[in-house]
Amino acid sequence: MTRILLLGGTGDALKIARRLAPAHVYSLAGLGKVPDDLKCAVRVGGFGGSEGLARYLAGEAIGLVIDATHPYAARISANAAQACLLANCPCWALRRPAWQPQAGDDWRMVGDWNELIDALAPFRRPLFTLGREPLAHLDEIPPRQFWTVRVLDSHPDSARSRILAARGPFTLDGERALFALQAFDVVVSKNSGGAATEAKLEVARERGLPVIMLRRPRLPEVDREFATVADLLDALSPGAQADSSH
After folding, report:
1. If we measure between CA atoms, which residue out of 210, 214, 147, 151 comes closest to residue 182?
2. pLDDT at 246
3. What biological process terms from GO does the record include (predicted)?
4. Cα–Cα distance between 141 and 152 in angstroms, integer?
């Protein structure tokens, strides 16, 4: 049986991990909660770049790498693709389709943090849904702005910021209630794709709010790409998957 290394940290990756048999390995960078309900092995921590990962693949007799990391985890994806070339190991990737603007959307596309801050200048009460990056800039908030930053882990508020510790999926009703309570005037988002966090975009559309959208990074070519978890699981041999009948 081909031994699999699954690179995860997303909800989609966890769905795959829950289907893997004990011989396989689910790898996490260490952020967030480590699942304790899996049949497969769980590894937490980095590998030491592409060369370190290549050594791990050879030493652990890994025959397939599945990259199911976040669409913005470009460095991890690049290291995985390079390591697989070095180790002569096939690499598959779950590449979640990006969201597409709908009628009534006002998306302002930006490429990096500096462009984002420039686009944010006219607004007063942004909702950040970028992950942890805004936490490094809380001391740079302009006096006229108040930031709400939604992240996985708790963090102290400040005079001009509120940190919301929350984990998706987020419901449409829940997002409507949050937007009504906080009176946001702009949403700042990555184009993560998927349904788990899409409700914020629908509420922004309903309320006529602009969305400052960070463009996706360019990801490396791999041996096979899949748009959905179901498609990827269908491609795995039955022997790779744990018995889920109980």
Report:
1. 147
2. 39
3. cobalamin biosynthetic process
4. 21
Query: Does pLDDT of 30 surpass 60?
Result: yes
Please give the class, per CATH, of domain 4-97+218-240: alpha beta
At residue 1, the pLDDT reads: 76
The pLDDT of residue 242 is 78
**pLDDT at 7 (0 to 100):** 97
Asked if residues 120 and 188 have their Cβ atoms less than 8 Å apart, the reply is yes
Q: State residue 239's pLDDT score.
A: 74
Higher pLDDT, 155 or 128: 128
CB 114 within 8 A of CB 93: no
Where are the domains positioned within the chain? 4-97+218-240, 107-214
Equal CATH topology for 4-97+218-240 and 107-214? yes
pTM given for the model:
0.86
Would you give the distance in Å from CA 125 to the centre of its chain? 24
Residue whose structure tokens are 């899409």: 198
* First CA to last CA distance, the chain: 23
CA distance linking residue 185 with residue 187, whole number of Å: 7
More confident residue, 24 or 32: 24
Architecture of domain 107-214: 3-Layer(aba) Sandwich (3.40)
CA 156/CA 140 separation, integer angstroms: 16
Q: Pick from 77, 96, 47: which is nearest to 220 by CA?
A: 77
| Contact present, 187 and 197 (Cβ < 8 Å) | no
